[in-house]
Design goal:
Layout (H helix, E strand, L loop, with lengths): L1 E5 L3 H12 L4 E5 L10 H6 L7 E4 L4 E4 L1 H12 L7 H30 L6 H24 L10 H11 L12 H11 L2 H11 L6
Parallel strand pairs: 1-2
Antiparallel strand pairs: 1-3, 3-4
Helix pairs in contact: 1-3, 1-6, 1-8, 4-5, 4-6, 5-7
Length: 208
């Protein structure tokens, strides 16, 4: 059994999707980042970095942060969604690192400077908007050759990329010019476990 501390964020949805795909039992605890609940002493005891998601393996009292690390942990624990060795495994990590170092921060910073900057920052906005679109087109090139982002099989690398593309409206990104990403996104979105993971996360958002 796992406890997951999360909110309706791109990184959080990766964890619920993985748990649903892997058919692992979990209890979901909402951490409303809009109200600053990630800065409370109780949450900081789980993650001093003050960010969701956090995964806690209840019986072992083991907690883990960072969505990519959580995905790897769950995949290795079950022996699923991550090849055991060789080139196929390396391709999954290649995409995980590309996501963590490239697509994810570009999408996040682009959205921040569009929506939350105290004053207009044209240089920063251009920098990160351009980079967000560039990384999306890199992914489109990959998916032009492969069914999934790391090859022929669905893996945790697909879950990682899907999280930010699910929230692509935040950086004002569309899939209009990336047909291979659009095809891939539709395929991933149609998976029942993905739909369950999204529904669990979306239920955390208070209804006005």
């Amino acid at each position: 059994m796992f406890d997951v501390y999360a909110f309706a964020t791109p990184n959080s949805v990766k964890v619920t999707i993985a748990l649903e795909e892997l058919e692992l039992p979990y209890t979901l605890h909402g951490v409303n980042v809009r109200k600053g609940e990630q800065t409370t002493p109780e949450f900081l005891a789980l993650n001093p970095n003050g960010k969701v998601p956090v995964l806690v393996e209840t019986e072992q009292a083991f907690s883990l942060t960072e969505s990519a690390a959580i995905l790897v942990f769950l995949a290795e624990k079950t022996g699923r969604l991550l090849p055991a060795h060789g080139e196929a495994r390396a391709r999954v990590f290649e995409q995980l690192f590309f996501h963590a170092s490239g697509l994810s921060p570009a999408f996040g910073q682009s959205g921040f400077f569009q929506r939350f900057a105290a004053k207009p920052e044209p240089i920063a906005l251009e920098r990160f908007s351009t980079e967000a679109n560039r990384t999306l087109h890199v992914l489109d090139t990959v998916l032009m050759k492969n069914r999934f982002v790391a090859g022929d099989e669905f893996t945790i690398a697909d879950i990682a990329h899907f999280g930010w593309l699910w929230r692509r409206s935040f950086p004002n990104i569309t899939l209009d010019d990336t047909p291979h990403v659009a095809r891939w996104y539709k395929d991933i979105e149609s998976r029942p476990a993905v739909q369950r993971g999204i529904a669990r996360i979306e239920a955390l958002v208070p209804q006005d």
